[in-house]
Amino acid sequence: MKKLIYSLALAAVALGFGGCKETWDENPVLKGHEGTLTAEFLNEPVMKDYPLMINDANKTGSMLLTCSQPDYGYAAVATYKVQVSLTEDFEQYQEISQAFYDCAQIKPVNGDIAAAIEKLAGVRSEEDLPLPYQPMYVRLRAYIEQSPENTEYISNVVSFDKVAADYLAIWVSEVPVNMYVRGSFNPNWDALEDYQLMTGPEEDTWVSRKVITLEKDTQFKVADSSWSDACNWGANSSSATVKIGENYTLKISDNPGNLNVDEDFTGTVLVRKEKGNYILLLDPKTEEE
User: Fold this and answer.
1) Spatial distance between the Cα atoms of 52 and 267, rounded to a whole number of angstroms
2) How many CB atoms lie within 10 A of CB 212?
């Protein structure tokens, strides 16, 4: 009987050790560290010698980078962000917002690359373009999303020898655009400079260049200088009253209804693009405020 109990005890211990080993294999321990470490894990790009002029036609294309995974103790799912600089020391750089998860398919979009180098080059308008061919330096920032504070690595730096851009890929504020408040305050509903909009401080926002006055019962639309289908925005019905200080979703069509105000308005006209819709706001604040 004692021998039987002893044998059962040994079997239980063996199973216990076996269970511990299985738990270790299925739940590996993440290898973390303090601060940010630098490691060599970014490969030299195959197309590094190929001249690339990024333009409006190829902005949706992409570059290809590949890497190996930093040492996290096991094959973890890491996040990779691409950082771009015009100098090898990365004194100034831009990080592209898109995240990548496959070491063999890190493909930043050309348009994002163009935006990064334009910001670094100080581009403010189309007059600053095209940018000349110049070396562009790239590195990766890697981390584990569940524990970013102790898993961050910065890669070695690689380069593309000749990269340039010849279209405005960045959002620049206070640039006049082909967008106007056009209405019955002018007999011909002309596109007048005093009623022109310009780019706002945030991407996909536009604001009137000057304080605008619309008298009660004024009819108007937001449109470009040629009433094109691309920018001819108005009421969602035959007509609509826009309440001052309230958002109004504009109808985008070839001939939307007219907008109107049911009280005198003096202030700033704001338009923003949100989830494919264009939102109008008549803000009664003036420049003096």
Assistant:
1) 45
2) 20
